[in-house]
Design a protein that fits this description.
Elements (H helix, E strand, L loop, with lengths): L6 H13 L9 H11 L2 E9 L2 E12 L6 E5 L9 E2 L2 H18 L3 E6 L8 E3 L2 E7 L4 H7 L2 H12 L2 E4 L5 H15 L6 H11 L3 E8 L2 E11 L2 E9 L8 H15 L4 E8 L3 H7 L5 E3 L1 E6 L13 H12 L2 H12 L5
Parallel strand pairs: 3-5, 11-12
Antiparallel strand pairs: 1-2, 2-3, 2-4, 5-14, 6-14, 7-12, 7-13, 8-9, 9-10, 10-11
């Protein structure tokens, strides 16, 4: 297990993440540190070394249940996928065994591995999420022409509505006020301001805050991070009164243009659950999706937990949360959010 104070091992970890094609923003020690510090989760960084070189790794967080009744191991909360990256089947098996040992020692109910490629195991698998990653290699002009006509029309409408986009000129307060209110509209607690402040400190100028304004009023915002060759659009929000002006469409298009100008190879639009409004919105851009595979090692439960928005318990919670006054949910939300795995 790597501790953040062990600079030599952390350097090896980050070097492997940077140079392995499977290494993502979420695998980086900077991102993992932000989650650990902001949410208070216990973190274990599992790895395999061969001849002094790191050849496989897996970050896992111990996530508590509400009131500390239970816990589970997740790799990694907040991420779309952040599972095992390795150079051989043998190393994958070693990490799975070590993870299971830790899970059993903690009395965890299950271990969730979030993968973009299936593991070589007979564990239970859930494939309800996809991710959208746009290849930027041919430039923004080619992307525009290959884009779905409906999305191009939405962007044109936003332009005609005189919306102004600032790709990297917003403040954290600008973003958070829009983001937290949007989460309330959707019936979900928001992440804490401290989490975003931590990300901004760790990633500096590579953490972008994009805003969309109408007549000087900010109506939409997005928090994104540049890492390796990719721009990750992490979290966003919109004032629901302005949804008909398509601020999301224009904002994301401006981010894509920015990524192309920066010479980045990919734009990560983030994951969505199949059949949701978010999925339909991203699918309408006309670019291919990639299936995600969430593997579950069921240690103390008989079946995969039903945590999606469609479950009855989740619907009841969302309805209740929407009905609560915003000042109250803004105060309670971040403390509750650590128990809600997303």
């Amino acid at each position: 297990m790597i501790q953040f104070g062990d600079s030599g091992l952390v350097a090896k970890w980050d070097d492997f993440v940077l140079n392995n094609p499977g290494g993502t923003l979420w695998h980086s020690s900077s991102f993992l540190k932000c989650i650990s510090n902001s949410f208070g989760y216990s973190l274990k960084l599992l790895y395999v070394e061969k001849e002094g070189e790191m050849v496989a790794l897996l970050p896992l967080f111990s996530v508590p249940g509400l009131f500390g009744i239970s816990n589970k191991l997740i790799g990694v909360p907040v991420s779309s996928w952040c599972g095992i990256i390795c150079n051989s089947d043998e190393h994958e098996s070693d990490l799975l065994k070590e993870a299971r040992n830790w899970g059993n020692d903690l009395g965890a109910e299950y271990i969730e591995y979030r993968q973009i490629k299936k593991l070589r195991t007979n564990q239970s698998v859930k494939s309800t999420y996809v991710t959208f990653i746009f290849d930027l290699g041919e430039g923004s002009e080619v992307l525009w022409e290959s884009m779905n006509r409906k999305t191009r029309g939405a962007i044109r409408k936003a332009r005609k509505s005189e919306l102004e986009v600032n790709v990297n000129n917003g403040s954290l307060d600008d973003f958070y006020n829009i983001y937290a209110r949007r989460l309330h509209d959707l019936g979900s607690p928001a992440y804490s301001m401290d989490f975003f402040e931590s990300l901004k400190r760790e990633f500096g100028d590579d953490a972008l805050i994009t805003t969309v304004s109408k007549g000087g009023v900010i109506i939409s915002a997005c928090f994104s991070i540049k890492y390796k060759d990719t721009l990750y659009a992490l979290l966003a929000g919109v004032n629901k009164r302005y949804l008909s002006l398509n601020p999301y469409s224009l904002m994301y298009w401006k981010l894509i243009e920015f990524a192309c100008k920066e010479g980045l190879a990919k734009f990560d639009f983030g994951r969505s659950r199949i059949g949701t409004g978010s999925y339909d919105f991203k699918k309408n851009w006309g670019f291919p999706s990639t299936s995600l595979y969430y593997h579950y090692d069921l240690l103390k439960v008989a079946k995969i937990p039903a945590l999606e928005a469609g479950s009855m318990s989740t619907k009841l919670f969302q309805f209740t949360w929407k009905m609560m006054p915003y000042p109250l949910v803004k105060k309670l939300g971040p403390g509750l959010r650590k128990y809600i795995v997303a």
